[in-house]
Specification:
Order of helices and strands: EEEEEE
Largest sheet: 5 strands, mixed, barrel
CATH class: Mainly Beta
CATH topology: OB fold (Dihydrolipoamide Acetyltransferase, E2P)
Length: 94
């Protein structure tokens, strides 16, 4: 099978909650320029992402990818854990 390039949106964020089973809440921050004043403003979004093995912990930096609706509010899945909070080590968990 070919390795097809995915056209799904991806975001990098920090896990702010891992209290649910197989679900984490990921906070994604981005900078947008104000249309009139041209100053950069921080915008935040929280996404619920699917974590099937419950590997993510609060504070982990993760890569999430858009997917089909998995529940009422869950439309993203964790692709990999980029960094762990406590150790700061680079991790490639898929």
């Amino acid at each position: 099978m070919e390795n097809k390039k995915s056209h799904r949106k991806t975001r990098v964020g920090v896990v702010v909650s891992d209290k649910m089973d197989k679900t984490v809440v990921v906070l994604v921050e981005r900078l947008v320029q104000h249309p009139k004043y041209r100053k950069y403003i921080k915008r935040r979004n929280k996404f619920k992402a699917h974590d099937p093995q419950n590997l993510c912990r609060e504070g982990d930096k993760v890569l999430i990818e858009e997917t089909r609706p998995l529940s009422k509010t869950k439309r993203w899945r964790v692709v990999k854990i980029l960094e762990r909070l406590e150790t700061g080590e680079k991790v490639a968990v898929e």
